[in-house]
Amino acid sequence: MGEKEYRISRYTYRETDIVHGIVIASLLISCTLITALSFSRSLTLLNYQLFFIPILYAAYFYARRGLVIAGISGVAYQAVGYYYCYPDPAALMGVTSQAFLFVIIASLMTYFIERIRAGEARYRSVFTHSQLGIVLFSLPDLWIKQTNDKFAEMLHYSADELCGMTFSSLAFTPRERKMFLERMENRDNCENFEIRLHTKEGDSCWVNLSWSAIDEQTVSVTVVNINARKILEDVKDDTMLKYRQLTENSPTSILVLREGAIRFANPAFSAFSGYSPEELEGKDLLFLLDSRDREKFLAFKKRLADETDITEGTDFRFVTKSGGLKVAAIFANPILHNNRQATMMNLVDISVQQRLEEKIQQDNERRRGIIITVAHELRTPLQPILGYLNLLIQDPEGFGILDDTKKMLERCLVSVERERQIINQMLELSVLDSGKIQLTFAEFSLPVLVRSMLDTCGYNSRAEVTIDIPDTLIITADRDRLYSVLDSLLSNAVNYSKPPRKIHVSYRPGPDGTTHTIAVRDNGIGIPQNLFASIFEPFQLADAAKLSRKYNRLGLSLSIAKKIIQMHGGDITVESTVNVGSTFTIHIPGKLPEENNHVA
Amino acid sequence: MSHKIMLVEDDEPILELMEILLTRIGYEPLIVPDVLEALTIVRTDPPALILLDVMMEPVDGWEFLEKLRTEYGMKELPVLLFTASPSVEERLATMNDKWLGVLEKPVSIPDLKAGLEKFLKK
Fold this sequence. Notes:
The structure holds 2 protein chains of 2 kinds.
Chain A: E1 5-8, E2 11-14, H1 15-40, H2 52-62, H3 66-85, H4 89-129, E3 133-138, E4 144-147, H5 149-154, H6 159-162, H7 174-186, E5 190-198, E6 204-213, E7 218-225, H8 227-247, E8 253-258, E9 261-265, H9 267-273, H10 277-280, H11 294-306, E10 310-319, E11 325-337, E12 340-349, H12 351-379, H13 382-394, H14 403-434, E13 441-445, H15 446-456, H16 459-462, E14 464-468, E15 474-478, H17 479-495, E16 502-509, E17 515-521, H18 544-551, H19 557-567, E18 571-577, E19 581-589
Parallel strand pairs in A: 14-16
Antiparallel strand pairs in A: 1-2, 3-4, 3-7, 5-6, 6-7, 8-9, 8-12, 10-11, 11-12, 13-15, 16-17, 17-19, 18-19
Chain B: E1 4-8, H1 12-24, E2 28-32, H2 35-44, E3 49-52, H3 61-71, E4 79-83, H4 88-93, E5 100-104, H5 109-121
Parallel strand pairs in B: 1-2, 1-3, 3-4, 4-5
């Protein structure tokens, strides 16, 4: 309050003090005069009682200092009394005792008033210095009687401004006002009622209210500002909402983990694990894993802490709510979740894929088993045929065989050899397909290999073979297998052409110098373009009819050749024109494929 | 002096053929169609080499070999597995037995001759 203050010696007086002083002084003078008058007229009705007015007035406002007024009153009363009653001893006694009574009454009053004031001061101190907002409002109209500064600060009002308002008018929305009023009607006391109030500027402010009725007309409310917490919660909800929107329809499972615990799981993960999102929240992912994979997961988490993100999937087995076993590949990367470090995991359910892979593997094993058995059963009966044919052809005279018959037997022998070869090729292909074979790499001279093959297999005598390979060329590959590939190509070149056969074997380094390109060109019957792919496929039944007449004798050699080159990390291609010739080209990388890196 | 070659084989056409072939290329064949009988003969009259079929009843080639090597202690008797089954070589590779080899069916006369000579020389 902007009140003027006056200093007189060591005391400070406010304007109200001066007003009170004047009132007290005039009251004292009036009392003295009235008392004197009543004594002089012998009116006993009004004398000392009047002095209680200034005494009580002073005691009420100034407590201890009010005693001075009581003293002055006593002296004034005594002086007046003595003046009129002298020398009656009884009357003098009465006046004196009255004067003492003033002081006693004033002392008692002072005492009680100070007690009351002290209690009030304590309450006031709590009220003004409290860290909680405190509001007193009246019932039933809800007018705010009093608020402390803390509450006023919360809403950016001054305490005085608030005193002109009803508490319910502070609610942020009509709906919240209605909620508050309903709550007020239902009970006198209430704890932790969360509501938004509006600030002076019209912004919302989240508060927690607890109130109790002090008396019939007054309710005291404590107000805690929970705005910060609520905003954080809102942010959290907002983040969750975003995650949800982003991941709702994702077919892959998505998790957000912080400190090992699941903070968010999308519906796909719920479906995968069988747990509801509520059940998952806060759960440690470790306990959803099959116990056999827990160590592995801990290592994975450690790796995640060391590295930024793990882009290749790592497979883990999960136990679902119903106790089933599922497999998922986990991809993980760090994210910020509510401004804190967290991990986002994508889980791809590979249970079905793995079951299929296992089934395919089993099927492959079984097929290979069948092929091995079939090969055995097909080769065993060939033994007597081959053996007896050998015997007869070796010693025609001994067995009395004519030349014509011998020629027939020789044709039989060729067929038997071919059948044996096909069975062997079928076996080789199944071995290569099984993936159990590893190549044995070595450095060797390609021109030497090609020349020795031409001599050994007699291609030189059946065709005019030209070679365009640098004499010094050394390559790294599986020598024996590359030999068989080139042998197949040369053999086809000879078999599918008519004299004069011309075969050209050439070498070119790849465009980047890291690939080897070896081409075998012939002037044979050629291959129609629509069969380019089929000739590399084993037993293409759909094309069997087309292939059968001219190309049936290819057997499986091209399938095997392609497989071997693929195992080297390369490929084999064909260019051909019917009745002009074909070119088969082998491309193999200069660097070894890593998984086959066994240099002999 | 010609080497005595024992053939343990239960397939009759092959058995007859092999007797002729082995004689023809200069060996003395001892044909035993019964694998149990072969287990007895091998101890009483040990051959220079055994041509051993793998798929036989009631004792197969592997069991025969096991008995021969461990029970009878005939660790240096050359044995050629005479089989049409392609899976034999994988198993053979793990056995580390230098007196054990494979002769794949069907075998031609030159291959039979070469195979036997190679093994007997050792």
